[in-house]
Amino acid sequence: MNRWTRRKFTHLAGAACLAPFCPRVARGQAKARVVVVGGGVGGATVAKYLAASEKGLDVTLIEPKPSYTTCFFSNLYLAGLRSLESLTHSYETLAQKYGITVIHDMAEAVDPVAKIVALKNGTKLAYDRAVVAPGIAFRYSDIEGYDEAATQSLPHAWNAGPQTKLLREQLESMEDGGVFVITAPPNPFRCPPGPYERASLIAYYFKQFKPRAKILILDAKDSFFEQDLFQDGWSRHYPGMIEWLPSQFTGGIKAVDVKGRAVKTAGGTFKAAVANIIPPQMAGELAQRAGLVDQSGWCPIDPLTFESKLQPGIHVVGDATSAGDMPKSAFVTNSQAKVCAFAIATALTGSEAAEPHLFNTCFTFLAAHDAVSDAISFKATAETIKISEILLSAVGEDAELRRQVVRTANGWYDAFTHDVFG
Ligand SMILES: Cc1cc2nc3c(=O)[nH]c(=O)nc-3n(C[C@H](O)[C@H](O)[C@H](O)COP(=O)(O)OP(=O)(O)OC[C@H]3O[C@@H](n4cnc5c(N)ncnc54)[C@H](O)[C@@H]3O)c2cc1C
To answer: Which of 4, 222, 290, 296 has its CA 20 to 30 A from that of 52?
Structure first.
């Protein structure tokens, strides 16, 4: 057993990963190759944990963008409380400190039989195990008139970067008294509290700079996560500013009129000064092309290893997965990625299998000094992943406790992005 490797991996993996790690790749033997597609939270975490702990593996990370801007905390940017630069992370440490080969390109296909990942630039990379972590794609066809071109007028801002910047610019140039419309998608989707946190933080911005503005949330659902906490926050901080219309009223989001800046629902047409269309979602395109997606639009996985149930030898982590009770969050993605890294190490080097530990912790802002949190632990079995314990903030907590959650959230952001990107 390689004790150095075992100590280092368990140290890095923290409480989520406590099992022994015993590589079996013999000296001089060619290194086993892991190709990770997608340098978001999921892909970067798997690549880092494998490369940092296991010298017997050759780890390659494929990501088209030169740097990664986090969706988490991007609503604070929309409120003018953080810069986009403070949310942007480079791949330099992963390459230089951990020795990961980072290739900035798109993966176009994964051939599970030949075990090859094909890149847009024509390169073909052979793998022993592949990880696909492409995040989400949008079901544009579910909303008539909305497509990729329309996102330049009516942004989704559900992948952070240029879309988030565009939405912020539109909010800044919106007249006071205008209506900001957000469409909230049906389940399952990336970040269940996200649309409602966005409404809260944009209301925080409006309250200071455009106090006559209104926010209208047109929802495809009849209820949403932490609804009581949000509605309590809205009545305390922004009375009369935010209106939420559930599906039983809207009848669902049917179409957009891009030129007229309007959203059409079964219950009526709503004109907006600024419209944020968050479409229904599915697994990222590469997962679809690689045959990793079932009829639900998401990737079924083995809950104990995150290996695809459809394509052996390919693992899927993050928002693209269908993972039982687990919501689509960065924390969940990072937790899945560590379990996946352990499973790949076990398969390729013979290290002892580890029991999966899966968690979620989420901090959600209602205002600059008022945040709530949830902490969930999960139990994975061969069949599925179920919630085993859940802790939530409560309505009526005192203001100092909520300020403390804001401080904890800021500390979490720094520690978490360090864990992912080095
Ligand atoms: C507004 C908002 C707020 C949020 N707040 C929180 C929060 O507070 N806490 C929290 O835990 N989560 C939060 N989330 C959710 C979190 O951002 C996601 O769950 C997380 O990013 C999922 O990670 P991922 O790796 O699956 O996907 P991503 O982070 O989207 O990464 C996917 C990567 O794959 C790359 N890629 C895609 N296709 C290819 C290809 N063919 N070849 C190569 N690369 C490819 C993409 O460029 C991208 O970099 C929030 C999300 C939003 C939208």
So the answer is: 290
